[in-house]
Design brief:
The complex is a heterodimer.
Chain A lengths: L2 E4 L9 E7 L6 E2 L4 E6 L4 E5 L4 E6 L6 E3 L3 E6 L6 H11 L16 H5 L9 H9 L18 H10 L34 H16 L2 E9 L1 H11 L10 H15 L5 E4 L2 E4 L5 E7 L2 E7 L7 H16 L5 H4 L4 E5 L18 E15 L2 E15 L5 H15 L8
Parallel strand pairs in A: 12-14, 14-15
Antiparallel strand pairs in A: 1-8, 2-4, 2-7, 3-6, 4-5, 6-8, 9-16, 10-11, 12-13, 15-16
Helix pairs in contact in A: 3-4, 7-8, 7-10
Chain B lengths: L1 E4 H15 L3 E5 L15 H5 L4 E3 L4 H13 L3 E6 L9 H7 L3 H4 L9 E6 L14 H5 L5 E3 L4 H13 L4 E6 L6 E4 L12 E4 L4 E5 L2 H15 L4 E5 L2 E3 L4 H10 L2 E8 L4 H12 L9 E5 L8 H7 L3 H11 L2
Parallel strand pairs in B: 2-3, 2-4, 4-5, 5-7, 6-7, 10-11, 10-13, 13-14
Antiparallel strand pairs in B: 1-8, 6-12, 9-11
Classes of the chains: A alpha+beta, B alpha/beta.
């Protein structure tokens, strides 16, 4: 019996995915678990695995299509099997999905930028007009008309729900052609199409900054002991396994969160849910935005385990190939700009979490100790906390607890 | 207001206009001594005599041709075609002469005549006597085409037609002479070229005329039981076509069907749908559906004939389809 492969749900808030590329073509053999296609979701480009073994009989959507979750994308079966049943089940939905036009790129640009060009959205003329008048992004509206057509009702529902007024009309993506002759930078305004990732970041952080009452506590950490210990540890490790300052901080944060479960939490109405696990998220810069990879049970892991996992996940994130598991489930997030010589900065809470830690550079600075001016290594970090969940005193005590680990790093090894 | 039949309404209109204007006279097959095939002119012969109620030979081109001549010299003839299917025998007069003479002679002549014709299927008269070719006649500029769906409209429009100085084809439906409806007391006229909302509704617009109005009203009553309120726009006149109420209604409901008894291809529905797309495109929320006759010569067999003609359930289904 041939099997229909559907657009998987790869995140709790995923509603549709952009099928970036087919890895398998029609007629190719495929084993269960083989990568069938690459999907770009709001968060990442992820690989879709075949849930069946056999021959790829039919690819139901073209690369570049945006497909709602659960909609069929391919049929896998034996080579000579009749698959008309699967096709007829899927044809109604598939007929609505039209391929996106390829972007009019002039020179190579980031693939994600080209791939999210808006394609023909199936909507009634009236729906299109209302959407245009209200700057509603039709690609974000779920159509309920025949064949998924967006009709007036759907736009009105979307407008009532709000948060859809993102103008995503296709814009020409332009990059500067390589040239040996000096040319002055263009004085024309450049309009850059935002990626799905950029849009997701925008949505989530607007929601966070507008609905979560943030407060901030900054603490300065003495870093000499940690830097010494890192030097000692790394002396025994091969280059590709060396631990970073951030790995220490992650471990310290995780252990501190065990003492302050209220900051390892989320608020739901009148209830604060303190998470049983400590999964610390690490913000990673990726092309077109930022992604949070998650070290599961950070408090239970050794420095080397933490280090290895973060390296692997960050690499996958930068290549646009994170696994859903890499980016899901964080209970507390961290953002580290230490490598950019930053004195201090503050971060926006990553919803639905209750707090985030913004970690700056460890710097050699003048310090006063016992009345004497000395040179020391200091690092500032600022925690942003949801005031509905916690207060300044608790956050300050958390920072002290964190200092207890970072300034006495041997405690993190036992 | 009196409740009278379509037959009585038409008969009243004819009689009132004959009484009012001595230039008005009637000619056609069996209109006199027999009182008309559908008994519309029963009693007219006795009242007005053979001079004004003229029985003619079975020769439609002669009937229409003579009427045109009479109209050109100042009379107001009402020429009756026993069925609109016989108009094809007089096509040159109806299409090439009557609507074009005033234009061709630079206004020296006008042709103030009415051609009353009985159209429509449903009476088992066979493929050649049951047609609804209204759209054919509405195609030609110069010929006004009127086709009422209620006794009130029939009377008011026919009186206006008789007083018009241009030729008018007035199409009555063969199965609607017994339809009853309220008619205003006293004399009244209804201007030619005005569509009318016959039933108010919020959910969907049904554009129709003549027999389609009767069917659509029944369908709307059924739909109302399911809380679907259809607004019905009666065209009443196919040429000149008044899109005002159609567009007004459509801009409110954003969904429409067109119901006509003629064939779908190149029909009245095609015209209405095109106009909506041209003039209210940004208000379209679903494709507009045409309900029309099946594309076959109308069968004689009763069951087959009914299967080929648009029915109330076809309208209900179409409405539900556009509301999906």
């Amino acid at each position: 019996m041939a099997e229909t492969i559907n657009m998987p749900k790869l995140g709790f808030d995923m509603q549709e995915g952009l099928l970036v590329r087919w890895v398998k073509n029609e007629g190719e053999n495929v084993n269960k678990g083989d990568v069938l296609a690459e999907i770009e979701t709001d968060k990442a480009t992820v690989e879709v695995e075949s849930s069946a073994s056999g021959v790829v009989r039919k690819l139901l959507v073209e690369a570049g299509s945006i497909v709602p979750i659960g909609d069929p994308i391919a049929v896998v079966g034996s080579a000579d099997e009749v698959i008309s049943e699967q096709l007829s089940v899927s044809s109604k939905k598939v007929a609505d999905e039209k391929p996106l036009p390829s972007a009019p790129t002039i020179a190579p640009v980031a693939q994600t930028a080209a791939a999210v060009q808006e394609g023909p959205v199936k909507a009634s003329p009236l729906a299109k007009k209302i959407a245009r008048d209200n700057k509603v992004d039709l690609s974000r509206v779920q159509g309920t008309g025949p064949g998924g057509r967006i009709v007036r009702k759907d736009i009105e529902t979307a407008l009532a729900g709000g948060a859809l007024t993102v103008d995503r009309r296709p814009q020409t993506v332009i990059s500067v052609p390589p040239s040996t002759v000096y040319r002055p930078p263009s004085t024309e305004d450049q309009v850059i199409q935002t990626t799905k990732l950029r849009q997701a970041i925008g949505r989530r952080l607007v929601e966070s900054k507008q609905t979560v009452p943030h407060f901030y506590v900054t603490h300065e950490f003495r870093m000499e002991a940690l830097l010494d210990m890192r030097k000692q540890i790394n002396a025994y490790l091969p280059d590709n396994e060396k631990v970073s300052v951030n790995d220490f901080i992650l471990k310290g944060v995780a252990l501190s969160l065990r003492q302050f479960p209220n900051l390892n939490a989320t608020i739901k109405g009148n209830e604060v849910v303190q998470f049983g696990h400590v999964h610390v998220g690490v913000a990673v810069t990726v092309p077109g935005g930022l992604m949070t990879v998650v070290v599961k049970d950070t408090d239970q892991k050794t420095l080397r385990q933490i280090s290895g996992e973060v390296k692997a996940m960050a690499a996958r994130a930068r290549e646009g190939k994170v696994k859903p598991d890499d980016v899901e489930g964080s209970t507390f997030s961290t953002s580290n700009l230490g490598m950019y010589d930053v004195e201090d900065f503050i971060a926006i809470i990553n919803p639905p979490e209750a707090a985030i830690l913004a970690i700056s550079s460890a710097r050699e600075v003048p310090v006063v100790e016992s009345g004497e001016l000395k040179v020391g290594w200091r690092m500032k970090a600022t925690i942003s906390v949801d005031h509905r969940v916690s207060d300044g005193a608790e956050a300050a005590q958390f920072m002290q607890a964190l200092a207890g680990f970072l300034e006495n790093p041997v405690r993190m090894l036992v | 207001m009196a409740k009278i039949t379509m037959r009585e309404a038409i008969s009243q209109a004819l009689m009132e206009e004959m009484d009012r204007d001595p230039a008005v006279f009637i000619m056609g097959e069996e209109v006199g001594v027999w009182g008309g095939t559908y008994a519309v002119t029963k009693g007219f012969y006795d009242k007005y005599g053979p001079q004004r109620i003229k029985d003619t030979p079975i020769a439609e081109n002669a009937i229409i041709g003579a009427a045109i001549g009479a109209a050109m010299v100042g009379q107001r003839p009402i020429a009756e075609l026993m069925t609109i299917n016989f108009a094809f025998s007089a096509m040159d007069y109806i299409i090439n002469q009557a609507p074009k003479l005033r234009y061709m002679f630079g206004g020296q002549f006008s042709v103030p005549m009415v051609i009353r014709a009985v159209g429509g299927g449903g009476r088992q008269l066979g493929a050649t006597h049951s047609q609804t070719p209204d759209a054919v006649f509405a195609h030609f500029p110069g010929l006004k085409v009127v086709s009422p769906g209620t006794p009130e409209d029939a009377k008011g429009l026919l009186k206006s037609a008789i007083r018009s100085n241009d030729p008018i084809l007035f199409i009555e439906h063969a199965t609607m002479y017994q339809v009853r409806g309220e008619v205003p007391d006293g004399e009244y006229l209804i201007p030619i070229g005005q569509s009318k909302i016959q039933r108010a509704g919020r959910d969907v617009t049904i554009v129709t005329y003549c027999k389609g109005l009767e069917l659509s009203m029944k369908a709307a009553d059924e739909l109302a039981k399911e809380d679907i309120e259809a607004e019905i726009v009666d065209l009443r006149t196919l040429r000149p076509l008044d899109m005002g109420p159609v567009l007004e209604s459509f801009k409110k409901t954003n969904r429409a069907i067109v119901v006509e008894e003629g064939w779908k291809s190149y029909g009245v529905g095609s015209e209405i749908v095109s106009r909506i797309y041209e003039e209210a495109f940004d208000y379209v929320d679903a494709p507009i559906i045409r309900v029309a006759q099946k594309e076959v010569p109308l069968p004689y067999n009763r069951a087959l004939e009914q299967a080929a003609l648009p029915q109330v359930h076809d309208i209900i289904e179409a409405v539900k389809e556009v509301l999906k």
